[in-house]
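S1.2 Input.
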Amino acid sequence: MNETGIKIYLGADHGGFEMKNQLKTHLLEKGYDVSDFGTHSKDAVDFPDYAFLVTQAVSGNHAGGGRAVGIIIDSIGQGSAVVANKVKGIRAVVAMDAFSVKSSREHTNANVLCLGGAWLGMGLAKDLVDIWLNTPYAGGRHQRRLDKITQIENQTMRVV
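S1.3 Output.
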């Protein structure tokens, strides 16, 4: 386990390729354990393929007692979030601003962050990733809601 206790799975399509590479360097410099699922060039690829690879890794890896998370970058961020949220156990959000990113961790324990490489500046992207990675899940009253999300995912929820 690395000193941060967090395993990060990173992936991007061609629209997020440059941002992915810069974020990878940023994360490695901060001591994170990063696995890069690609893409590895600006050649056009399909974002669902990379979003699926990252989310499969997050859903199947609990980082040896630490936290396993994913960061996916496509041109807008929305498409990858849609794909990611189809995978069981994934709670993916699109990074928009500091408040929403922080709330996504505190309230829903989001485990995948999606970024838009075509509209999000690199400085802001780094800041949002840092906020997201350093914000703990608040638990408490939020756990009841998180349990309901899991019940919906498992198709066993009763409406009360």
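S1.4 Remarks. The chain is about 45% helix and 15% strand.
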